[in-house]
Design a protein that fits this description.
The complex is a heterodimer of chains A (805) and B (288). Chain A has 3 domains: 173 residues, Aldehyde Oxidoreductase, domain 4; 214 residues, Alpha-Beta Complex (Aldehyde Oxidoreductase, domain 3); 325 residues, Aldehyde Oxidoreductase, domain 4 (2-Layer Sandwich), CATH 3.30.365. In chain A, helix 15 runs parallel beside helix 16 and helix 18 crosses helix 20. In chain A, the strands form 8 sheets. A 7-stranded mixed sheet of chain A has the order 3-5-1-14-11-12-13, with helices on both faces. Chain A has 805 residues and is α+β, with helices and mostly antiparallel strands. Chain A is 28% helix and 24% strand. The radius of gyration of chain A is 28 Å and the shape is globular. Chain B has 288 residues and is an alpha+beta fold. In chain B, 33% of the residues lie in helices and 26% in strands. Chain B has 11 helices and 14 strands. In chain B, strands 4-5-10-6-7 form a 5-stranded antiparallel sheet. Chain B has a 4-stranded antiparallel sheet with strand order 11-12-13-14. In chain B, strands 1-3-2 form a 3-stranded parallel sheet, with helices on one face. In chain B, helix 2 links the parallel strand 2 and strand 3. In chain B, helix 9 packs antiparallel against helix 10 and helix 10 packs antiparallel against helix 11. The chains are: A alpha+beta (805), B alpha+beta (288). The interface between A and B is medium-sized, with 24 and 19 residues. Bound molecules: flavin-adenine dinucleotide (FAD). Chain A: It comes from Aromatoleum anaerobium. Chain A: This is Molybdopterin-dependent oxidoreductase. Chain A: Pfam families: Ald_Xan_dh_C (PF01315), MoCoBD_1 (PF02738), MoCoBD_2 (PF20256).
């Protein structure tokens, strides 16, 4: 018997690709997670906001005297009480408290902080507001008509003193001579020539509706000033570091005096990417009350006053040759901005990528005009314009294929991108599993045969028709360089027992980032997941990160965590080599031990080594930091440039049954193939994709925030229909592992991808089933029934031809 | 902040009707309509809030001569699971199976569904085509008296019934269906669960040698109250379910209803659904 046989060798193992339970799952499943709703600070007051009862009006007077006199009321604020308020938001066009004009029904006029929510509510009822109605714009096409009423004519000052502009005072918002909030223009290739070469050209207008995020955790904030005037906020934000800086600007404060702590967040999906009036108002109340003030929305308020997905009217012209080569795309969109500008107006950043680069297209010409209306305003929402763009482009792909009598899958494969391509927009596809996504999803769903059969059976007796539809998407999968840095910092610390504290700038908003980051660290350090504690919710502790958006956290924060773990590992192995007199390159970390890399033979228990390092005369702690900045570039003025370090691809095939007697579309199956780079946490990625599919299904079939002349008609879950469990289709999800060279362990971002194709594929499936093409979402039973009976209005977009030359 | 001055939870029927007699009382059963409506400001709770859930006389399902009596406090879940209902009144069980969610079914009661008098109340349409009667109790002069009213005549408008302020709805009585009795219910919502009917249809009758008699047709959510459709019944009565009859009945149904546009559906679409689904129900019965 030799020594080696007695020694316990540690075999190589990996956590990558395993099914790992989310670290926060037990707490959440047990109902023990303490959300902002559950927090109570000593001395805390409760705040409520009085919103406009008019869609568009001049405020003649506000009388708060009765509210102020109500016992239990501490503070009542109106615009007149906060002359230093600054316009907020993406275009700095939005004063938190409105003193002169309300532009939508969500508009904040006054706010109350009181001993209880009930008292605050009662106080709101005592506030008298006199209005003078102004003409309403609720159709974005009307906003561009000559002589249309203006929504933002007046400028706002930035001198910190006056709502009105003083002569020569600096201007924060200049006012708008028209209703145009933002415009985007992009072009590549020779459009005229490409069009001349086309054998088939389609032009159609698509209409995309309002939906909203419906986070389980409604919006909320607690704000508190300490005796030195430092501001502490408990906030659900997805972007704490950007907000810290922005709040400092709005409050004329030194950013170092602002600290943001994020309690566990009950869902974000993009809704918590902008600063909203309620947050600034709550801070004003806390400043005035000198007490902590908590403000949490009711569900109705969440529907009325949190942002929506960007509604879009979109005209697409597409052409191809008889041989199936795409020739050009021309796009004009009209974005209904709502009354103020938030991230919705900037969705063209993503939309134009889909038009220019999802398929190879020699010429692309893209234009967006975002206009002010008196409707609710649109923000960012998982997919960021890509659901809208994909809805149009993938319907046209089917229409072109049909016109040249080519199989829709073959047509797509002929024009699909490959690895190594540089698109007209300057995106470089280093890894690209697009064609494999297409063939995998098509094969696993038997797409081609079913597609042909369904057409044959359209005319059969019986009300229920079956259809199958395909759609694909391209989305950033390696961050997006929008801000000066797209990076993330990590601090990593090992204690005397070889437990790791991973301090990361990346927020957990339910997407599973804590778990996947722990996994990546453990993979480097040879430790079990349970050895990691993640600290990720306090701007006073965590290093900088740009925030949770653009499907970037696993990629960017993952690379950052790996960087810190690699540094720790190098330090540990060097120390072990020195102590045990061997070459550090011959050592590795595995199962909580330093081992010999070739045999797996343990050299020293890691915890013991850590203690030896710590409790020696030359005490050493293992603590490392790393900042990862992806190798992407900012776009130039023409929106060209390789904006992401990697790109994600997916194809989804949707199968439906259309009941032609009722218009009910039942989604029976979704077959998806996702190029995710590499699967890290299989359980996490499955959850992410299944949840995303359901969100896409809601967008396609049931969800519809009905906005009627500026009034939201269904601000509740009774009439705003989320998908419920029995409607969720069977899912068959394949992962295409393209092993991205820059990605953490080869992975790419996947957060937004799964929602993007569903509506487009559903549209193609309904056409396959019935021969009727529907250009407007959502496919609610009545809308489908109308379309089947020729009673659907085809969307039209006249405005663009007038405004662009 | 709330106008409620007293909360009472009587333990007997006698006590409860005594309290009602004093006036200004709001009755609370499962609260699944009452609470959301009062929170939304659509309904003001009166001076006294009376919880009737402790009254045993209001519970249970039993055979009572040639009728089935369902106590007002019976929950939707209890109806769904009851063997008598399954055997004799499967159409009512079917309606309960399309009702809300488990949580709501466990709390919501039959009496509440009737008392709420929504045109979209899901038990109302099947109960009407089953010729159900409501039983009302009161204590006008010291002793408890009851009266019965056909359910089809009970509703006077949205949220309004012929129940007098001093009356408590104690039960629903449904005559035992005759041999050959067939009844069907259809509810249309945009999703299979947790939805409020955009329209609902109840059809019943006795089929003898292929001929329909005692035809009953009722519709929900197409008028201020659930309605019995006399002209549609006429088109069905005494007929065989052939293609021509089915089309005639479906067209009569479409012409007879006069729905409105709201966030759930337009009037046009409701009429189309009434036609198409009446036809589908009858097609299924004819094929069975
Ligand atoms: C999420 C949700 C989903 C729902 N889905 C459905 C659905 O699918 N279909 C449907 O039909 N309904 C639905 N409802 C409505 C509601 O659940 C039902 O109407 C239920 O039957 C009401 O019963 P309850 O015991 O809760 O009534 P309560 O809310 O207690 O009372 C309702 C009304 O009836 C009165 N009342 C109650 N009992 C009596 C009595 N014995 N005598 C006199 N008056 C009385 C009350 O004063 C009140 O006005 C839903 C409600 C919710 C919240």
């Amino acid at each position: 018997m030799n020594v080696a046989e007695k020694t316990h060798f540690i075999e190589a193992d990996t956590l990558i690709g395993k099914r790992i339970q989310k670290k926060d799952a037990p707490e959440k499943a047990a109902g023990k997670t303490r959300y902002i709703q559950d927090m109570v600070l000593p001395g805390q007051l409760h705040a409520k906001i009085l919103r406009s009862s008019r869609v568009h009006a001049r405020i003649v007077s506000i009388d708060t005297s009765a509210a102020k006199a109500l016992p239990g009321v501490h503070v009542v604020l109106t615009a007149a009480d906060v002359p230093d308020q600054q316009p907020i938001g993406v275009a700095r066009d939005h004063l938190p408290l409105k003193g002169e004009r309300v532009r939508s029904l969500r508009d904040e006029i006054a706010a109350v902080a009181a001993d209880s929510e009930e008292i605050a509510e009662a106080a709101l009822k005592l506030i008298r507001v006199e209005y003078e109605d102004l003409p309403i714009i609720s159709d974005p096409q009307d906003a561009l008509k000559p002589g249309a009423p203006l929504i933002h004519p007046e400028p706002h000052g930035a001198d910190g003193k006056h709502l009105h502009l003083k002569p020569n005072a600096p201007i924060a918002f200049a006012g708008k001579p028209d209703n145009i909030a933002m415009q985007f223009d992009y072009t590549h290739g020779d459009l005229a020539q490409a069009e001349a070469e086309s054998d088939v050209v389609f032009e159609d207008t698509f209409k995309l509706h309002y939906v909203t995020h419906c986070c389980m955790g409604v919006s909320g904030i607690i704000a508190e000033f300490d005796a030195s005037g430092n501001l502490l906020m408990y906030s659900n934000t997805q972007v704490p570091f950007l907000h810290k800086r922005e709040f400092a600007e709005y409050l004329h404060m030194d950013p170092s005096r602002i600290r943001i702590i994020q309690p566990p967040i009950g869902g974000g999906f993009g809704s918590k990417l902008d600063i909203y009036p309620f947050e600034v108002i709550c801070i004003f109340l806390a400043r005035a009350a000198q007490r902590p003030v908590k403000m949490v929305f009711s569900r109705e308020e969440e529907f009325l006053a949190s942002p929506t997905r960007q509604p879009v009217l979109l005209t697409l012209r597409s052409g191809c040759k008889k041989d199936g080569t795409l020739t050009f795309r021309q796009v004009h969109t009209l974005h209904d901005n709502g009354a103020y500008t938030s991230w919705g107006a900037t969705t063209p950043f993503v939309m134009m990528q889909t038009f220019s680069s999802l398929y190879r297209v020699p010429a692309c010409d893209y234009h967006t005009t975002a206009v002010y209306t008196n409707n609710p305003y649109a923000g960012s929402f998982r997919g960021y314009g890509n659901l809208q763009a994909t809805f149009a482009i993938e319907q046209h792909m089917d229409m072109l294929a049909e016109a040249i009598q080519m199989d829709p899958l073959e047509f797509r494969l002929k024009n699909a991108q490959d690895a190594g391509e540089v698109t007209g927009q300057g995106m470089k596809f280093k890894s690209c599993g697009f064609k494999e996504c297409l063939t995998t999803a098509a094969e696993r769903s038997d797409y081609q045969a079913k597609h042909r059969d369904n057409i044959v059976h359209r005319g059969d007796a019986g009300p229920v028709k079956r259809g199958i539809g395909i759609a694909s998407m391209l989305h950033v999968g390696g961050g997006a360089k929008i801000y000066p840095s797209d990076g993330c910092g990590t601090i990593l610390k090992l204690d005397d027992f070889a437990n790791v504290t991973l301090i990361t700038g990346a927020s957990e908003i339910g997407q599973g980032s804590e778990t996947v980051l722990s996994q990546l660290v453990c993979e480097e350090l040879g430790l079990p997941i349970s050895a990691v504690t993640v600290v990720n919710n306090d701007t006073a502790i965590t290093p900088w990160d740009v925030g949770v958006h653009a499907s970037r956290t696993t990629f960017i924060a993952g690379n950052s965590a790996i960087g810190a773990a690699k540094k720790a590992k190098a330090k540990i192995l060097a120390a072990a080599a020195k102590k045990h007199g061997c070459d550090e390159t011959a050592l590795d970390l595995r199962g909580g031990f330093v081992i010999k890399a070739d045999t797996g033979e343990p050299v020293v228990e890691l915890a013991r080594l850590m203690r030896n390092l710590h409790f020696s005369d030359k005490a050493e702690l293992v603590m490392t930091t790393f900042y990862y900045e992806p190798p992407s570039v900012h776009q130039d003025k023409g929106f060209k440039g390789d904006v992401s370090a990697a790109y994600a691809w997916a194809t989804q095939v949707v199968e439906v049954e259309v009941d032609t007697d009722t218009g009910i579309v039942k989604m029976t199956k979704v077959t998806g193939a996702h190029d995710v780079g590499r699967v890290l946490n299989r359980l996490g990625i499955e959850g992410q994709i299944e949840g995303g599919v359901v969100m896409g299904q809601g967008y396609a079939l049931t969800e519809n925030l009905i906005v009627d002349n500026g009034v939201t008609r269904n601000p509740n879950f009774r009439d705003y229909k989320l998908v419920t469990a029995p409607e969720i289709p069977e899912m068959d999800i394949s992962f295409i592992e393209s092993m991205d060279g820059e990605g953490p362990q080869g992975a790419k971002g996947v957060g937004e991808a799964p929602s993007i194709c569903i509506a487009a594929a559903a549209a193609n499936a309904i056409y396959n089933a019935t021969g009727v093409r529907i250009f407007a979402l959502p496919f609610t039973p009545e809308a489908v029934y109308r379309a089947l009976h020729g009673k659907a209005e085809k969307p039209q977009l006249q405005a663009w031809k007038v405004t662009t030359t | 902040m709330t106008p409620i001055e007293q909360y009472l939870a009587p333990a007997t029927l006698d006590e409860a009707v005594g309290i009602l007699q004093q006036g200004e009382v709001t009755i609370l059963a499962g609260g699944t309509d009452l609470m959301p409506q009062s929170k939304a400001g659509r309904l003001a709770i009166k001076r006294t809030l009376m919880n009737i859930r402790r009254i045993p006389e209001l519970k249970g399902i039993a055979l009572d001569n040639d009728a089935i009596r369902i106590g007002a406090l019976t929950t939707i879940t209890e109806i769904l699971n009851d063997p008598l209902v399954k055997e004799y009144l499967p159409v009512l069980a079917d309606a309960c199976d399309h009702f809300a969610s488990d949580q709501i079914r466990n709390a919501g009661t039959l009496g509440g569904n009737i008392g709420n008098a929504s045109p979209a109340g899901d038990t109302l349409v099947p109960l009407i085509v089953l010729d159900a009667e409501v039983e009302l109790a009161s204590k006008p002069n010291g002793s408890v008296t009851t009266r019965r009213l056909p359910l089809a005549e009970f509703f006077t408008g949205p949220g309004r019934t012929k129940r007098a302020a001093n009356e408590l709805l104690t039960a629903v009585r449904i005559p035992l269906p005759k041999a050959g009795h067939v009844a069907r219910f259809f509810k249309f919502g945009t999703r299979p669960a947790l939805d409020i009917s955009a329209i609902s249809i109840g059809i019943a009758g006795v089929i003898d040698n292929g001929v329909i008699s005692n035809a009953r047709v009722a519709f929900g959510a197409v008028a201020p109250t659930p309605i019995r459709a006399a002209r549609t019944e006429e088109a069905l009565e005494g007929r065989r379910l052939d293609e021509a009859t089915i089309e005639a009945v479906a067209s009569a149904a479409r012409d007879e209803v006069n729905p409105i546009d709201d966030v759930r559906a337009t009037a046009w679409y409701r009429k189309e659904l009434i036609h198409n689904m009446t036809k589908r129900i009858l097609d299924h019965v004819a094929q069975a």
